[in-house]
Amino acid sequence: MNDVKGIKRIVNATRYSWQGFKAAWRGEEAFRQELLLVLVMIPVAIWLGTNAVERSLLIGCLLLLLIVEMLNSAVEAVTDRVGTERHELSGKAKDMGSAAVLLALINVAVVWGLIAYQRCIA
């Protein structure tokens, strides 16, 4: 069992997280596309949001999209590691991960749409 504690644990966790970001960037086209979208949309969110709550919602749903995409990629990687043969449970896991990403995208559209609509009628 790994008994690393204190600052060393934080350093290790940071390194592992950075490795995860690099793996997602290198190996996942969807993550690259979504990250670029997020980087473009954050300044728009700051402009579009009229207060801290709106800005938090606009940016938060974008970050949630990246989180869900990374978790989906992790599920796919583990599923592929277990075996490359077609299996009903592997397919189900990958499909559910993909559905989670779709829901996160719908969430982005709803949040952005409602806040943009409110701004247009105000």
From TrEMBL:
Recorded hits in InterPro entries, A to Z, give:
DAGK (IPR000829), DAGK_prok (IPR033718), DAGK_sf (IPR036945)
List the GO molecular function terms.
ATP binding; ATP-dependent diacylglycerol kinase activity; metal ion binding
**Cofactor binding comment, as recorded:** Mn(2+), Zn(2+), Cd(2+) and Co(2+) support activity to lesser extents.
Q: How does it sit in the membrane?
A: Multi-pass membrane protein
Q: Which GO terms describe its cellular component?
A: plasma membrane
Q: What positions does the entry give for substrate binding?
A: 9, 13-18, 30-34, 55, 69, 98
> What cofactor requirement does the entry state?
Mg(2+)
Q: What class of enzyme is it?
A: transferase
Q: Which UniProt keywords apply?
A: ATP-binding, Cell inner membrane, Cell membrane, Kinase, Lipid biosynthesis, Lipid metabolism, Magnesium, Membrane, Metal-binding, Nucleotide-binding, Phospholipid biosynthesis, Phospholipid metabolism, Transferase, Transmembrane, Transmembrane helix
Q: What is its main location?
A: membrane
UniProt binding sites for a divalent metal cation: E28, E76
Tell me the CDD domains matching this sequence: DAGK_IM
Q: Which of this chain's residues are annotated to bind ATP?
A: R9, Y16, E28, E76, E85, R86, H87, K94, D95
**So what does this thing catalyse?**
a 1,2-diacyl-sn-glycerol + ATP = a 1,2-diacyl-sn-glycero-3-phosphate + ADP + H(+)
State its Enzyme Commission number(s).
2.7.1.107
User: Is this entry keyworded Membrane?
Assistant: yes
What family does this belong to?
A: Belongs to the bacterial diacylglycerol kinase family.
UniProt protein name: Diacylglycerol kinase
